[in-house]
């Protein structure tokens, strides 16, 4: 295990350890080694590297950005298209979207590692845009579930993994910052798309408002496809066939196991405030409908800064300590949410929680990239990690919905559940900090 830690530390500092078998006098082996060394030189900057960040920002803008817009759609469905359905039933469309987005990484990761990242972007772009266009034509619950829940979720999932994995192959010393900028695209997208739908729907209707979002997404995704390039060439057919969806060696890494346990626990409760801040403001704090809507926008906007600024600290202090601190801070804020019953307090809460929770969303990416001993497997390891966080996301909001009674203004049990899960995740991340420090001293 100490040797695995040494490999991770060397990789984190800008290089990957490699070894060759056979005679160095062989011209074929020398050429192969020279090619590998050239691939392993990580840019850590330059126009090409930062263009990948911009392209990945747009991918995040149209994956998490579109998914997080569902709150606006849920409000519309409850009062218009799906009046006969309960809030809990309608919310399953958005929850399933997020679950598919995250867990698709278990498939997308190996595909990325095989060199087919452009195929992921093309396929994901098609499904996402097609799903939004089909959503604009839907009138029944099952149609919306298939178009918006399944189709859009698959498309967003296919473009999500490349958006974070490719940045990790271009940066080491500035990886947390680059990943934070990338992840900020999700927050910016959710703010912009939510406002677009909110403002256009009364003027041009549900169908065309949804199509406008689809056309904007299409334009952004075309830009990403045009500028993004894989740093390493596609693998040989032999290597591609050998790559599996699950790298079992990852489960031999104790730091990785601790990390995915923390991600699972944290993601159970992390998004519950995003789902319930509007209802809480209207029923508990007597905030007007328009202002309660902007509380979600404020939270998402603050999350954008939370994905960038902590990244600067993470590049200096390490991703794991900063992630642990922000997770625990998120839990404290959720507990404090119980005592807030005014608009001013909710604004402050939205800003602070959006900021610290944004770091919890973005920093696991750099943490997994740090833990993987070979960047050729970074997509697979990330896919496995996101699968566990996706399971947490899937079960968290339905459980909170069962514990919460919006009609009777009873949120305490749901809030306590969310905070307790997040504090459990923060505790596990703190254990990871201690374990990595122990391995470093031991080595």
TrEMBL record:
<feature type="transmembrane region" description="Helical">
    <location>
        <begin position="249"/>
        <end position="279"/>
    </location>
</feature>
<feature type="compositionally biased region" description="Low complexity">
    <location>
        <begin position="12"/>
        <end position="26"/>
    </location>
</feature>
<keyword id="KW-0812">Transmembrane</keyword>
<feature type="transmembrane region" description="Helical">
    <location>
        <begin position="90"/>
        <end position="109"/>
    </location>
</feature>
<feature type="transmembrane region" description="Helical">
    <location>
        <begin position="208"/>
        <end position="228"/>
    </location>
</feature>
<feature type="compositionally biased region" description="Polar residues">
    <location>
        <begin position="1"/>
        <end position="11"/>
    </location>
</feature>
<feature type="domain" description="Major facilitator superfamily (MFS) profile">
    <location>
        <begin position="48"/>
        <end position="442"/>
    </location>
</feature>
<dbReference type="InterPro" id="IPR020846">
    <property type="entry name" value="MFS_dom"/>
</dbReference>
<feature type="transmembrane region" description="Helical">
    <location>
        <begin position="176"/>
        <end position="196"/>
    </location>
</feature>
<comment type="similarity">
    <text>Belongs to the major facilitator superfamily. Monocarboxylate porter (TC 2.A.1.13) family.</text>
</comment>
<protein>
    <submittedName>
        <fullName>Major facilitator superfamily domain-containing protein</fullName>
    </submittedName>
</protein>
<feature type="transmembrane region" description="Helical">
    <location>
        <begin position="411"/>
        <end position="438"/>
    </location>
</feature>
<feature type="region of interest" description="Disordered">
    <location>
        <begin position="1"/>
        <end position="30"/>
    </location>
</feature>
<dbReference type="GO" id="GO:0016020">
    <property type="term" value="C:membrane"/>
</dbReference>
<keyword id="KW-1133">Transmembrane helix</keyword>
<dbReference type="InterPro" id="IPR050327">
    <property type="entry name" value="Proton-linked_MCT"/>
</dbReference>
<feature type="transmembrane region" description="Helical">
    <location>
        <begin position="320"/>
        <end position="340"/>
    </location>
</feature>
<feature type="transmembrane region" description="Helical">
    <location>
        <begin position="141"/>
        <end position="164"/>
    </location>
</feature>
<keyword id="KW-0472">Membrane</keyword>
<feature type="transmembrane region" description="Helical">
    <location>
        <begin position="291"/>
        <end position="313"/>
    </location>
</feature>
<dbReference type="GO" id="GO:0022857">
    <property type="term" value="F:transmembrane transporter activity"/>
</dbReference>
<dbReference type="Pfam" id="PF07690">
    <property type="entry name" value="MFS_1"/>
</dbReference>
<dbReference type="InterPro" id="IPR011701">
    <property type="entry name" value="MFS"/>
</dbReference>
<dbReference type="InterPro" id="IPR036259">
    <property type="entry name" value="MFS_trans_sf"/>
</dbReference>
<feature type="transmembrane region" description="Helical">
    <location>
        <begin position="346"/>
        <end position="371"/>
    </location>
</feature>
<feature type="transmembrane region" description="Helical">
    <location>
        <begin position="116"/>
        <end position="135"/>
    </location>
</feature>
<feature type="transmembrane region" description="Helical">
    <location>
        <begin position="378"/>
        <end position="399"/>
    </location>
</feature>
<feature type="transmembrane region" description="Helical">
    <location>
        <begin position="49"/>
        <end position="70"/>
    </location>
</feature>
């Amino acid at each position: 295990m100490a040797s695995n830690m040494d490999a991770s530390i060397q990789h984190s500092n800008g290089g990957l350890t490699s070894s060759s078998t056979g005679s160095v006098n062989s011209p074929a082996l020398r050429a192969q080694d020279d090619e590998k060394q050239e691939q392993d030189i990580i840019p850590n900057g330059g126009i090409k590297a930062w263009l990948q960040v911009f392209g990945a920002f747009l991918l995040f803008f149209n994956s998490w950005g579109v998914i997080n817009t569902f709150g606006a759609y849920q409000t519309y469905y409850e009062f218009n298209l799906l009046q006969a359905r309960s809030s809990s039933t309608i919310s399953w469309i958005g929850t399933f979207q997020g679950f598919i987005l995250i867990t698709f990484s278990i498939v997308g990761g190996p595909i990325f590692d095989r060199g087919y990242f452009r195929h992921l972007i093309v396929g994901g772009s098609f499904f996402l845009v097609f799903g939004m266009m089909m959503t604009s034509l839907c009138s029944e619950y099952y149609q919306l579930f298939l178009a918006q829940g399944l189709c859009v979720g698959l498309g967003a999932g296919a473009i999500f993994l490349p958006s974070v994995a490719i940045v990790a192959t271009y940066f080491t010393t500035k990886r947390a910052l680059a990943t934070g900028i990338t992840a900020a695209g999700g927050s910016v997208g959710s703010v912009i798309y939510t406002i677009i739908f909110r403002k256009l729907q009364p003027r041009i209707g549900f169908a065309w408002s949804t199509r406008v979002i689809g056309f904007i997404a299409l334009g952004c995704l075309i830009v990403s496809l045009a500028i993004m390039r894989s740093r390493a060439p596609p693998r040989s057919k032999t290597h591609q066939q050998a790559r599996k969806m699950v790298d079992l060696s990852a489960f031999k890494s104790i730091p990785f196991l601790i990390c995915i346990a923390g991600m699972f626990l944290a993601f159970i409760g992390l998004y519950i405030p995003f789902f319930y801040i509007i209802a809480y403001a209207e029923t508990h704090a007597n905030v007007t409908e328009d202002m309660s809507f902007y509380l979600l926008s404020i939270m998402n906007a603050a999350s954008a800064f939370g994905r960038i600024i902590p990244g600067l600290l993470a590049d200096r202090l390490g991703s794991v300590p900063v992630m642990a601190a922000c997770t625990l801070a998120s839990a404290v804020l959720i507990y404090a949410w119980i005592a807030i019953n005014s608009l001013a307090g909710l604004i402050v809460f939205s800003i602070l929680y959006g900021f610290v929770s944004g770091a919890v969303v973005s920093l696991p990416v750099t943490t997994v990239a740090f833990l993987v001993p070979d960047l050729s497997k970074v997509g697979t390891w990330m896919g496995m990690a996101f699968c566990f966080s996706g399971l947490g996301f899937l079960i968290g909001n339905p459980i909170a919905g069962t514990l919460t009674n919006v009609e009777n203004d009873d949120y305490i049990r749901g809030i306590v559940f969310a905070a307790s899960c997040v504090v459990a995740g923060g505790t596990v991340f703190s254990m990871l900090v201690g374990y990595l420090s122990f391995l470093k001293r031991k080595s």
